[in-house]
Design goal:
The protein is mainly α. The protein is built from ten helices and no strands.
Length: about 210
């Protein structure tokens, strides 16, 4: 992946400037290195690119766009499929980095909360959290070929899990999304991706239960 800005709306330096700070030296490289770790297949720089591509046309929904952008950069910074506190570690790293750059503490707290929202437990609170979560879940509404690739990538990341246990656990996760009244929290994403996401999830569930 290119070392340049992921997209214009995801410009690293611009997000920090919007928060009245300079980007901490070397931090962006540290984050990109995390997203390039060999145990990752989905939660990679590809995922970051896709998230920023999904955010760009919907960026007008954000109340604090720079905070949403930084939350995206950090939301999978720590990723270990054996752990249960990835989001908490990532959120803490984001908040500490913002504190070190003398960003307003309230903004740091909001970014921490945004990263934590990507645990996908319950309905996100606030417009920015709903936007961020919808961006993170935009892969569920991808075209059939990309969704199939995504499913293979997730299986790779959980390669240490036996097949039967994986199928059971994955089916439980996907069923949880299907059981929601709406997978997406914003009308913008629901109108564009809801139907295809439900088709993708239903097809995947059939394969998992076969």
């Amino acid at each position: 992946m290119s070392a340049g800005p992921l997209t214009s709306s995801g410009n690293w330096e611009g997000a920090w400037r919007a928060l009245g700070a300079a980007a901490p030296e070397g931090l962006r490289s540290q984050l990109l290195a995390r997203y390039a770790e060999p145990h990752r297949a989905y939660h990679t720089q590809q995922h970051l690119h896709e998230c920023f591509a999904a955010l760009e046309p919907a960026s007008g929904l954000a109340e604090h766009l720079a905070e949403v952008e930084l939350a995206l950069w950090f939301h999978d910074a720590i990723y270990d499929t054996h752990a249960h506190d990835n989001e908490a570690q990532s959120a803490r790293w984001a908040q500490e980095s913002m504190r070190g750059a003398s960003v307003d503490a309230a903004a740091g707290a909001r970014v921490h909360a945004l990263v934590m929202a990507t645990k996908h437990q319950g309905v996100p609170a606030g417009a920015d959290a709903r936007l961020l979560v919808d961006v993170d879940l935009s892969i569920l509404g991808a075209d059939e070929t990309r969704f199939a690739e995504y499913e293979r990538q997730i299986r790779f990341e959980y390669g240490w899990v036996p097949e039967d246990a994986y199928r059971e656990g994955r089916a439980r996760v996907l069923s949880g999304f299907l059981d929601r009244a709406s997978i997406y929290g914003t009308p913008w994403f629901a109108e564009r991706l809801e139907a295809r996401a439900r088709a993708n999830l239903s097809r995947s569930l059939r394969h998992l239960k076969a």
